[in-house]
Every structure is written in structure tokens, then in C-alpha cells.
Write a structure and sequence with these properties.
Layout (H helix, E strand, L loop, with lengths): L13 H8 L5 H10 L13 H5 L4 H14 L6 E9 L8 H7 L4 E10 L2 E3 L15 E7 L4 H19 L4 H17 L18
Antiparallel strand pairs: 1-2, 1-4, 2-3
Helix pairs in contact: 1-4, 2-4, 5-7, 6-7
Length: about 200
């Protein structure tokens, strides 16, 4: 655990106020709660609070909520980051059943998390693999909570296009492979919330 994220949820912003109404007055406690929620795409993706309302979320929706709360509390040093990493069975258990039959070792995936200084915090809550996605980072991009969806999609699609070109497959086939990997995660028995977060102390790449 990190004391630098254990700050009070204060301020009169609409997100922070609603979070307090739901009983959370410390940021780290909110993060731990979010990490324990099941992984899944919420139905109302435009609502920052959808993670708490639907009691589920993805890396994007969970960390968008947390970043919005931090910023409304005046902690602008807590960054919302989209990291591109080489997604494989070792760092994302469950996708090997999709990648291996297709003949690929990895595919670029966009992952959201928080960063404070040189340390990364992942509150997605997925089961850990034998290696960390942070060990396979290709690039990192600081984004805003408002433009997260558009920015993440652009960054990710560009990376998948480059990967598709280098592997002599179409973008459509590459993206379909990625979607199949995410579906495998959603239905996999390995998707058990860990109730914890992981951090890496190395500086951003």
C-alpha cells in the first residue's frame, strides 16, 4: 500500500460528493473497493460514476473514476495513463487460448492505470500473471478523464495497425483477434478480483 494515495476525499465536485455520499472518505479505500469489483464493460460508458452504479468496470472506467475523484480533490499530480503493452498469456492469463491457435505470441493492448511520480498503480483487480504488463510496456500516454475514450481508442488502433502491418494481417483481423482475447478474459475463471493493486517504481518509458 502507498501512503501517498491515502488522502481524504474532499471538495464540492459532483463526483467527489457522490463518492462521499456512498460512504468513501479516503481515496485509497475507494481504490481498493474498485479493485474488488468484477471486471466487465459497464452499460453506461459515458457516466464517470457507472462503476459504482453498476458494480463492475474495466481498466478504463475504474481508473477514470479514480482520476476524476483525485482531480476534484486537488491532487492533479495523480495522472490517468494509457499504457500500450505486449499482451500475452504470461502477463494476461486467459488469452493464450486465443493467441496460440492463431499463431501469435502477443498483441498490443491498451491498459489504463494511475501514475504518481515514477510509480504506477493498477486498480483493475485482475488476477496476476507470472509477469506484469508493466514489464512489457511499449509506450505511455497521459490522458484526460474527459477525452479518455477517444484518446485510448486512437492510441490503441494505431498500435494494432502497426502490429497488423508487421505481421502481414489485416487491421480487421487483428482487431477481431484482440476482441476475442478480451472476451476470453471476461469469461475466464482467472478473472477473480484480487482486491489489491500493483505498482512499479521504474520511471515511465
Amino acid at each position: 500500500m502507498s501512503g501517498e494515495l491515502d488522502f481524504s476525499i474532499e471538495g464540492e465536485g459532483p463526483v467527489a460528493m457522490e463518492v462521499r455520499r456512498r460512504g468513501f472518505d479516503r481515496f485509497l479505500a475507494l481504490g481498493e473497493h474498485v479493485a474488488r469489483l468484477p471486471y466487465g464493460r459497464p452499460a453506461c460508458s459515458n457516466d464517470v460514476l457507472t462503476v459504482l452504479k453498476e458494480q463492475r468496470g474495466t481498466c478504463s472506467s475504474k481508473h477514470r473514476l479514480l482520476a476524476a475523484v483525485a482531480q476534484e480533490c486537488g491532487h492533479v499530480e495523480v495522472e490517468l495513463v494509457v499504457g500500450l503493452y505486449a499482451m500475452c498469456e504470461q502477463n494476461t492469463p486467459g488469452i493464450g487460448t486465443v493467441l496460440e491457435p492463431a499463431g501469435f505470441d502477443y498483441i498490443p493492448e491498451a491498459h489504463c492505470y494511475l501514475r504518481l511520480g515514477g510509480r504506477r498503480y493498477d486498480f483493475t483487480g485482475l488476477s496476476s500473471g507470472s509477469t506484469s504488463p508493466f514489464e512489457a510496456l511499449l509506450s505511455e500516454h497521459v490522458v484526460s478523464t474527459v477525452h479518455l475514450a477517444d484518446e485510448k481508442e486512437r492510441i490503441h488502433r494505431d498500435a494494432v495497425q502497426r502490429w497488423a502491418d508487421s505481421h502481414a494481417v489485416s487491421f480487421a483481423d487483428a482487431w477481431a483477434l484482440r476482441e476475442a482475447c478480451i472476451q476470453a478474459l471476461t469469461s475466464s475463471n482467472t478473472l477473480k478480483p484480487t482486491g489489491s493493486f500493483s505498482g512499479a517504481t521504474e520511471p515511465g518509458v
